[in-house]
Amino acid sequence: MTKDDVLSGQVLLIDKPLHWTSFQAVNKLRWEIRQAFNIKKIKVGHAGTLDPLATGLLVICTGKMTKQINIFQGQIKEYTGTFVLGSTTPSYDLETEIDQTYPTEHISEALIHETTKQFIGDIEQYPPVFSAIKKDGKRLYEFARAGETVEIKSRTVHISEFEITSINGNSVEFRVVCSKGTYIRSLANDFGKALNSGAHLSVLRRTKIGDFSVDNAVTPEKFIEQLASE
C-alpha cells in the first residue's frame, strides 16, 4: 500500500480487539497512516460501530472510499456469540451487573431451538437503553447512566438467519444474520423473555458485513506491522 493508494481510497478489514471502541480503532489507524506516509490530513471512517465488549469485523475506509461508507453500513451483518439464560442486566450485556435472575428448569434444548423461529423475518425491537442512539441531542446511555428514564421507540429490523450452534447449560452459542440497525443485545433480552425466563449477551463477534469477512481481517497491531514493512 502506497501513499497514493491511501489517498485515492482503501477498504481496510480490521479485527477489532475486545475493549477497544470503534472510534479508538479509527483514530489509531488514522494516526499510524499519517505517520507512515507523512500525510497531514486524511479522511478515515468506519462502516458500522461495534460495542467495546464486542470483537470482530470493522470495515474502515480511507480517502475517497469514505464516500462508500453509507453503502457498506446498509449491508447485512453476521454475528456469532453467547447468550446466558436465567439472568438479565440493564445494558443487556456485561457492561452492567446482573439485576435479576429467573428460573431455567423449564427450558429444554428443543424449546431453545424452537424459539428461534419467533425471531426470523421482520421483527419489532427496542434498542437498549445503554446505546449510542440519540434522543433530544443526548445519547441514550447518557440518560441511563444518570438514572433517567426515557421513552424509546421500537424499530423494525430483519433477521434472515438465527441458528443455535451449541448449548452448554445456560450458555447458548448462536449465529445471526441480520439487517442494519439490529441490536444483538436486544435480541438476547427478547429471546430470554420468549423462553419465559431472562437472558443477556456475554460474548459477541461480528463475522461478516456484506461480502467482507473477518477471516480476511487483521488486528490493528498486524496492520501497523504491515505499514512498517511497506
Give a written overview of the molecule.
This protein is an alpha+beta fold and 230 residues long. The protein has 7 helices and 13 strands. The strands form 3 sheets. Strands 1, 2, 3, 4, 7, 10, 11, 12 and 13 form a 9-stranded mixed beta sheet that branches. A two-stranded antiparallel ribbon has the order 5-6. It has a two-stranded antiparallel ribbon with strand order 8-9. A hairpin with a 2-residue loop joins strand 12 and strand 13. Helix 2 runs parallel beside helix 7. It is elongated and about 60 Å long. The N and C termini lie close together (7 Å).
Radius of gyration: 19 Å
Task: Tell me the distance between the termini.
Answer: 7 Å
What does the main sheet amount to? 9 strands, mixed
Helix-strand category: alpha+beta
Q: Give me the count of strands.
A: 13
Unreliable parts: none
- Count of DSSP helices? 7
Helix content: 25-40%
Global mean pLDDT:
92
H and E string: HEHEEHEEEHEEEHEEHEEH
Please report which band the strand proportion falls in: under 5%, 5-15%, 15-25%, 25-35%, 35-45% or over 45%. Answer: 25-35%
General form:
elongated
Question: Keywords, please?
Answer:
nine-stranded mixed beta sheet; alpha+beta; 13 strands; 230 residues
Summarize the structure.
With 230 residues, this protein is of the alpha+beta class. 27% of the residues lie in helices and 33% in strands.
Question: Secondary structure elements and their pairing?
Answer:
Blueprint: H1 3-8, E1 11-16, H2 22-37, E2 44-46, E3 54-62, H3 69-73, E4 77-85, E5 87-88, E6 100-101, H4 109-115, E7 121-125, E8 134-135, E9 138-139, H5 140-145, E10 155-168, E11 171-178, H6 184-194, E12 199-209, E13 212-213, H7 220-229
Parallel strand pairs: 3-12
Antiparallel strand pairs: 1-3, 2-3, 4-11, 4-12, 5-6, 7-10, 8-9, 10-11, 12-13
Helix pairs in contact: 2-7
